[in-house]
Design goal:
The protein folds into three domains: 181 residues, no CATH class; 110 residues, no CATH class; 84 residues, no CATH class. By secondary structure, it is α+β, with helices and mostly antiparallel strands. The strands form four sheets. Strands 2, 6, 7, 8, 9 and 10 form a six-stranded antiparallel β-sheet that branches. Helix 4 runs antiparallel to helix 5, helix 6 packs parallel to helix 8 and helix 10 packs antiparallel against helix 13. The two termini are 34 Å apart. The chain is built from 16 helices and twelve strands. The structure holds adenosine monophosphate and magnesium ion (MG). Magnesium ion binds next to loops. Adenosine monophosphate binds next to loops.
Length: 487
């Protein structure tokens, strides 16, 4: 275990130089204070979790202090936003403080979000508010606990600094961790600004540091792109299987590592709704729940365009063609497991689709349905779940098929079934209303609810004593909450 001043830095991205990022110092927050920290994320840096309670922790992650070895930099990138190209974006309010390597030899980017203005702030104030920082913290740690690849969050630091959004709020910073903060939009920036040398440097950087195994392949860049396609297909399969809606799938928010990245008005589904739009400024539903699948491919083709200097168009197209089959295979595999199936049959896809349609028509809670389905034998579970469906005859027909399918899958005890299904069907997810309750308390200075919710969500598959209130459908006020897109 390390103390805060014992972190070891190796700032590989900063060494790429000024064409890639600009040196900027964090602008400190007034009266910085710890809101919440993640012990699991602290462990990634080998940090002793008790250091979170020391004043120097809030000073470091509230922008007051820096390690001597840190090199804070704002990265430049661009990207396609809602389908249109924005030629210059970049870190407008976040800084890459440096890269820390741990005892296991892993590198972790330390990125401080809400750290003040940079040359890429455009019209923004460089700040992040407490509300959105808490949401990012809770979501990234909750996704990780569900087994969904995501950037991580070390802590949220609150403050008394006023920040204006729709109303006056308080500034906060979230310390984000990821093996890399390079986005699709990084490649697009150097491609569209016609900087082939830097574009090549960036590609070599990503290949060597993040896809070293592809270097052994006959066409390393093509192998890397294929891997990026596969990782994104798998990521989106997990989002769809667990009901996560990202909300702002612009290419500047897509990680080259295939991890969930940049949290805005995201939401987990309460009732199953394929057409759900969590981003209220997304009037056309470009990033609706079910559109995440084709948009994943659209984004990969935007990246492919930026990689044409290194890979033939033919080969890129072929690699893009792998996206849907990869996606479908991963998705179906996850859904079979959620249904408690261990074998594969041709008609499983239809079984899943029929169930989702019934859930959609009756507004059935997506998370609780699967959890309850594993509580007991298939026959007993479907009998109990039947009341959730308006179209009971439709559900009965599905339930018959399901029971037959379960029987063909092979014998197992009720206990085995429960264990297997509960291990993949969470009881606790980050419902918007739960996040909202925690935010409301935190905004009045009480951080206990954020901390408790974070704890509960760190073990989503384990039933926790006294935590029943976190495993409920939302109350009326908490359904379809309009989450502000400002952050
Ligand atoms: P986002 O919607 O958070 O992914 O941000 C899109 C772009 O706007 C990125 O370049 C951000 O850095 C920038 N941005 C968002 N909010 C702010 C802000 N308050 N101040 C400066 N830049 C911002
Ligand atoms: Mg972004």
């Amino acid at each position: 275990m390390k103390a805060l001043d014992e972190l070891t830095f190796d700032n590989r991205f900063a060494r790429l130089g000024d064409a890639f990022s600009t040196h900027v110092l964090p602008e400190p927050l007034d009266e910085p204070r710890l809101v919440v920290a993640s012990d699991a994320a602290m462990a990634l840096l080998d940090l002793d979790p008790t250091v979170a309670d020391t004043p120097v922790f809030a000073e470091l992650f509230g922008g007051h202090k820096l390690w001597a070895e840190a090199e804070p930099r704002a990265m430049v990138y661009s990207g396609h936003q809602f389908g249109g190209y924005s030629p210059q974006l970049g870190d407008g309010r976040g800084l890459l403080l440096g890269e820390v390597y741990n005892q296991a030899g892993e590198h972790w980017d330390l990125h401080l979000k809400g750290a003040g203005m940079t040359p890429y702030s455009r019209m923004g104030d460089g700040r992040a508010v407490l509300r959105s920082s808490i949401r990012e913290f809770l979501a990234s740690e909750a996704l990780h606990a569900l087994g969904i690849p995501s950037s991580r969050a070390l802590c949220v630091i609150g403050s008394s600094t006023p920040v204006w959004r729709e109303k006056q709020e308080r500034g906060a910073m979230v310390l984000r961790l990821a093996p890399s903060h390079i986005r699709f939009g990084h490649f697009e920036y150097f491609y569209y600004t016609k900087k082939p040398e830097q574009q090549a440097e960036l590609a070599e950087h990503v290949l060597s540091l993040h896809y070293p195994e592809c270097k052994e392949q006959p066409e390393p860049y093509l192998a890397m792109f294929r891997e990026i396609v596969e990782r994104n297909a798998e990521l989106i399969a997990k989002w769809q299987a667990y009901g996560f809606c990202h909300g702002v799938m612009n290419t500047d928010n897509m990680s080259i590592l295939g991890i969930t990245f940049d949290f805005g008005p995201f939401a987990f589904l309460d009732d199953f709704d394929a057409h759900f739009i969590c981003n209220h400024s997304d009037h056309e539903g470009r990033y609706s729940f079910s559109n995440q699948v084709p948009i994943g491919q659209w984004n990969l083709s935007a990246l492919a365009q930026a990689l044409t200097p290194f890979i033939s168009v033919e080969a890129l197209k072929e690699a893009l063609g792998l996206y849907l089959p990869f996606y479908q295979a991963h998705y179906l595999d996850l859904m079979r497991r959620r249904l408690g199936l261990t074998t594969a049959e041709d008609d499983d896809q239809k079984l899943v689709e029929r169930l989702l349609k019934l859930m959609q028509n009756s507004g059935v809670d997506y998370t609780l349905f699967f959890r309850r389905l594993g509580d007991e034998s298939a026959a007993l579970a479907v009998t109990r779940l039947r009341d959730n469906f308006v179209d009971m005859a439709g559900f009965d027909a599905w339930a018959e098929q399901y029971k037959e399918r379960v029987a063909r899958d092979g014998n197992c005890s009720e206990e085995q079934r429960r264990e297997r299904m509960h291990a993949v069907n969470p009881l606790y997810i980050l419902r918007n209303y739960l996040a909202q309750n925690a935010i409301t308390a935190a905004e009045s200075g009480d951080y206990s609810e954020v901390r408790r919710l974070h704890e509960v969500l760190s073990k989503p598959f384990e039933e926790q004593a006294g935590m029943e209130q976190y495993a409920q459908r939302p109350p009326d006020w908490g359904k379809h909450l309009e989450i502000s897109c400002s952050s």
